[in-house]
Amino acid sequence: MSKAPSTHSPLANWGAIILIALTVALITTGGLLTGAIQAGEHPSRLLHEAMSIVGSVVALIVVVLLYRYGGVQRRAGLWLLAVVIVQGAVGTPSWMENLKPFLPMVHAVLAPVFLGVAVWAAVVASASWESGPMPLKDAGWPSLRSLAVVVPVLLLIQIAFGAAFRHQAMGVMAHIAGALVVVLLVLLNGMFVTQQCPGHKALQPAAVTLMTVAFAQIVLGIGAITMRMMTNLFTPGIAAVTTAHVVNGALTYGASIWLSVQVRRNVTPKD
Q: What domain range is 22 assigned to?
């Protein structure tokens, strides 16, 4: 019997990892730019735009490397290509300036989506993915497979609330109320996985990572709100904490995608 073709692409895997790092850097510089603008400054966008170009080139290389494998690797690559195109169009400076605050909000929400797709690409191009799933039954309630869909969706909505607040399109209460619900669900999701799938090589690291960044997000969120309540001025300290909160929010979404991909692959539905 002939051996199944390899689905492991070291170049695509490393390219996706580099893309994740570039995306985190882009979200960081974007958050600092937004903070500087809100503080009444006129910062240069040169570094951010240069990093965007580099990120797009790396993403296109990953797309090409993944496409030739077919299956889930090709789907991840095509999603990555789609988000690159949409994010590039939405991020056009003249459009963002003329369509405030809607387009900057969309741009801010698409950045974590881009990070999530890059995480997906890194996972499916990894050597561990080629080794195959370690299947187990979905035993609890709510089911892990349903949480794998619900949690990333709710996180994205929560990110949208935060973007709307930062760009002064709505108040902060929706973001605070959403955080109470979403963080609880995220932590429960991680705990359910660790309890139901102890020692699982694919699920455990993803669940622990998700819970860790979720805890950090709670701390950063409380810090950002507290500092904003102390002064009406947008100080460098507030800009730093707010940007860290934005970046960690994107990392939380990326970690939820990592866990969701592994759950959908390794956890089989209940009988």
A: 8-132
